[in-house]
């Protein structure tokens, strides 16, 4: 189900004036799926702009960013999810060095 959520998010990022009306249906389905997950205690791992924790995320890339503390998550490539206190899927992230 998480892969389906990922695909809906990718599709919704492509919204423009030509497909705005078409994507309304996608957005309604996406919202329903997210609500089902939330109602069943599946939560997104919030790691953006926070210190990197390898328990909850996998670092795919490191880059030097001026003004950002080292080992800070600066981009999330793929969201991670937890079921109560169990990790379903770690986030895939880019961190500062």
Task: Flag low-confidence runs.
Answer: none
| Strand residue content | 25-35%
Biggest sheet features: 3 strands, antiparallel
Which strands sit side by side, in order, in the main sheet?
1-4-5
One letter per element, helices H and strands E, the order comes to HHEEEEEE
Overall mean pLDDT: 95
Structural class based on helices, strands and sheet pairing: alpha+beta
Distance between the termini: 33 Å
Overall body shape = flat
Cα-atom Rg, whole angstroms? Answer: 15 Å
Q: What is the overall number of helices?
A: 2
Q: Which percent range fits the helix content?
A: 25-40%
Number of extended strands: 6
What this model shows, in words?
The structure is a single chain. This protein is an alpha+beta fold. Helix content is 33%, strand content 30%. The chain is built from 2 helices and 6 strands. The chain has helices at residues 2-13, 20-39; strands spanning 42-44, 57-63, 73-78, 81-83, 86-89, 91-96. The strands form 2 sheets. A 3-stranded antiparallel beta sheet has the order 1-4-5. It has a 3-stranded mixed beta sheet with strand order 2-6-3, with no helix packed on it. α1 runs antiparallel to α2 (20-39). The mean pLDDT is 95.
Task: List strands and helices in order, with pairings.
Elements: H1 2-13, H2 20-39, E1 42-44, E2 57-63, E3 73-78, E4 81-83, E5 86-89, E6 91-96
Helix pairs in contact: 1-2
